[in-house]
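Quarterly update, task 2.4: magnesium ion-bound model.
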Amino acid sequence: MTLSGPKTNTPTSDTIFALSSGRGRAGIAVVRLSGSLAGGAVRKLGGALPEGRQALLRHLCDPQTGEKLDDALVLFFEAPLSFTGEDVGELHVHGGPAVIAAVLETLDGMEGLRMAEPGEFARRAFENGKLDLTQAEGLADLIEAETQAQRRQALRQSGGTLLALCDEWREQIILAASLVEAALDFSDEADVPELIEDRARPVIADLLGGLNHHLDDARKGERLREGLQVVLAGQPNVGKSSLLNALASRDVAIVSHEPGTTRDVIEVHLDLGGFPVTLIDTAGLRQPSGEIEREGMRRTVARAADADLLVWLVDAAKPVWEPHADIKAGKSHILTILNKIDVGPATGNNRKGSLAISAKTGDGLEQLISFLTDKASELMGAGEPAIVTRARQRRELEACRDALQAFLSGDAADLELRAEDLRVAAHSLGRLSGRVDVEDILDRIFGDFCIGK
Ligand SMILES: Nc1nc2c(ncn2[C@@H]2O[C@H](COP(=O)(O)OP(=O)(O)OP(=O)(O)O)[C@@H](O)[C@H]2O)c(=O)[nH]1
Ligand SMILES: [Mg+2]
């Protein structure tokens, strides 16, 4: 199939189309169109349009040759009551590759229509005011969500939880800013302290308290979005790869009695009680015997530095309890596990606070899984749900917080500067929701979507 493909820098007035359901064979596939020509294109393919928001069975035919392409359910959403805010058509065709190819090729042959770029439907929804940026980010996360806790968080974000808070905060900043403006207009300086100290300051102090409360969340929203990073580290041959395989229930990593088997970092994704956990196997730590092993160890140290939880694995026959200084540096969550208890002396050799397992027989793995599940829940799900789910959001909120702090700690008599603090704070919230000055980040945010969303 040769389609024209995405054309860059095309005006948003083009009508776009894409396969919005997943690739591969399926009972049904959904092809979506958006733009002023969507209704006309659907009509050319399937005859009269159905009533808005009602599904109708139609024979889809190639308008050039009259050849029937498929029987499909057709829907039409008239602007502005659609996902993108434009006219939107949906063709629910049979999900076979040839059917999909025929429909997409026919659409591509129509004047004024082109294939959508990744995330272009969502971008149009944003540009037409149907979504703000935080909701768009939530939607992208909903599509990527692999576990139930991730789904819940993404659904909250796409439903506008952070947006609603932002709007509330912006209003408070605007209120405080209007008081500062009023103070600037007053010639009688006696009124200034009343406006600033008694009225604007409490509003901002209150807002700052709320903002700090949400920022002070131990990054649990970002962790939930990305998955808890658990790094398995230890000396060579202690059974790290065996443990990875046992927890993943499949043979992901090579296991051998030779020390120094694992050279590269190997990851598996687990769903523990609805929480996403990325388990990372690493090269054993010892005096490296060559360049490859040295690079493997450099990677181990790098991954350990980013880990939310470091698991230090110890061989029961010859336990080395202390993790290497460079991998435990700065780690607040370390779990020591004694492995190979089927051969080594088990409990007698174990240390307080560590777990005893056998990756070979499966002994102790249940306790380990339940420990990891509790840890995941503690670090990603404890307390009220997080509202900050991405580093971008945190950066804007921190910039807002800094400006509000500057407002509170600055010289109240310097009204011009205090007004500027509030402008900066409001601007950060504007960037967060995408209301102002965000051209530079749109490509990155919407480029992360799949085609058809
Ligand atoms: N008896 C026994 N042997 C084990 C256990 N876990 C791992 N082994 C064995 O220990 C050897 C090393 O296991 P690996 O899983 O490759 O060890 P590793 O820590 O990944 O080693 P490197 O990749 O070299 O750092 C293999 O022969 C495994 O079969 C266990 O619980 N009991
Ligand atoms: Mg290994």
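Highlight for this quarter: Confidence is low (pLDDT under 50) at residues 1-11.
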